[in-house]
Structure formats: C-alpha cells, structure tokens
Amino acid sequence: MRSEYAQRMMFHGIVVFLIGLVTGFFLYSGLMKNPQIGVITHLEGVLNGMFLVILGLLWSRMLLTEKQQKFLMVLAIVCVYINYFQALWGAVLGRSRATTLFPADRIPFPFEARILDVVLLSMSLGLCLVCVMALMGLRRGMAAQRGVVTGPGAR
Fold this sequence. Notes:
The protein has four helices and no strands. Helices cover about 70% and strands about 0% of the residues.
C-alpha cells in the first residue's frame, strides 16, 4: 500500500502540472504583461508538477522517519506552489526578468523586488533541502535493501 504522504505529493503534483498547462493557454489571452516570463511560469508548473509526482513514486524506496517524511512532503509541496506563483506574479505584473536581482527590472513598487528576492531564495533553498533529504532517504533505502541498516529511520 502506498504512503499517504506519497499520495498527497502525487495529487498536488498533478494539480500543479494542470495549472502549468492552463498557464500556457493564458499566454494567448494577453493577460500576462511579459509573455517570456509567462512561458517560464508555464514550464515551472509543468516541471514542478512532474517533480512532485516522481518524488511520490520514489517514496516507497526512501527510508525516512515519520517526522522526516511529513517534513519532506510539506516542504516539497509548499516550495513547488511558491515557485509557480512567484513566476506567475512576475509574468502578470510585467517583470523584465525571471528574477528581480537585476537593476533593469520593471517593478511598480520598490518593496516588491525585495519580497520576490526573499521568496525566490527561500524557495530555492527549500527545494535543495528536499533533494538532499530525498537522496538521504534513497541511500538509506538502498542500504536497508542490501541488509546494512543504520541511522534513524532504519526498519
């Protein structure tokens, strides 16, 4: 039986994938002030949705404690949604680049650049942590499969 955490990640992965596809349709409607960032938003949704689905499919091969599993699931889902919506925010408001780290950005409000930079950095660090935790869980799972069981979460 598949873990509830894996099911949730795959569900949200398909939701984000669908949102990414729908974003592609919005590119033709003219609702986005910057269509290039709109394409990035579309790709963020599609690729991040696939990432969550793949992570859910790998879930049974990871060996993590209950707390680690819950933390990994919540962090992955939150980071994927934040990643999509920060890109959408830029496409709708007409930022000139995918990030606000460049002085040539068209930002209607000065504080918006700082908010988006903090969001982007936090989300990027969060997704890196998700990958590191998944790699640790997969490594422990491989060790357990070979019969070498060590560390927390060992079954």
